[in-house]
Amino acid sequence: QVPLVESGGGLVQAGGSLRLSCVASETIFKVNDVGWYRQAPGKQRELVAMIPRDGGTNYADFVRGRFRVSAVNHKTTAYLEMNYLKPEDTAVYYCYARGVTRELVYEDYWGQGTQVTVSS
Q1: Strand pairing category for 30-39 and 10-13
Q2: What is the distance between the alpha carbons of residues 56 and 59, in angstroms, rounded to a whole number?
Q3: In the prediction, which pLDDT does 87 show?
Q4: Confidence (pLDDT) at 2
Q5: Which residues lie closer than 8 Å to 81 by C-beta, 6 or more apart?
Q6: What is the DSSP letter of 108?
Q7: C-alpha distances in angstroms, 23 versus 12, 68, 80?
Q8: Residue 29 to residues 5, 8, 17, 19, 47: CA-CA distances in angstroms?
Q9: How far apart are CA 21 and CA 114, in angstroms?
Q10: Residue 9, strand partner residues
C-alpha cells in the first residue's frame, strides 16, 4: 500500500495557481510532521513547506507569500496551494510525512511525486 498519494499536479501558465493534495494511507498510524518537497531536473530535492509536529508552518524563502500549506484530519490529508507560479517552480513535487506505525516505530514516508510544469 502506497503510504502517501498525491494529486493535483499539471501544466499551468506563469502567474497561475494549482493545488496539490496528499492523502495518507492507514499504513501510517499517526502523522507527526507533514509537508512538501520538490525536485527539478538536475537539482537536489528541496523543502518547500512543512507543518511540524508542534504546529505552525515553515516555508522556503522562494515560496513564502505565494504558497500555503495546510492539513486536516490529524494531518492525514495535506494540501499545497500554489499561487503566482513561476517557470522556476517547475518540478516534481513530493508529499512527505514523518509518522508512527501501529508498532510505534517512527518512519519517514514519501509520495510518488506529482509533476508541476509552469510555462512562461
Answers
A1: unpaired
A2: 10
A3: 97
A4: 83
A5: 17, 19, 67, 68, 69, 70
A6: E
A7: 23, 17, 12
A8: 16, 25, 32, 25, 24
A9: 10
A10: none
Question: CB–CB of 68/16 below 8 Å?
Answer: no
User: Residues in the chain with pLDDT < 50?
Assistant: none
Q: What is the pLDDT of residue 18?
A: 98
Residues in the chain: 120
**Neighbour count for residue 119 (Cβ, 10 Å):** 11
DSSP SS3 for 68: strand
CB atoms within 10 A of CB 73: 10
Whole-angstrom Cα distance, residue 112 to residue 23? 12
Contact 66, 87 (CB under 8 A): no
Model pLDDT, residue 23 = 96
- Which is nearest to 70 in space by CA: 56, 86, 53, 89? 56
Assigned C-alpha cell, 113: 511525486
Instruction: Using the structure block, give the residue that is written with the C-alpha cell 501501529.
Output: 102
pLDDT at res. 44 = 97
Unique residue bearing C-alpha cell 513535487: 93
CB atoms closer than 10 angstroms to residue 55 = 6
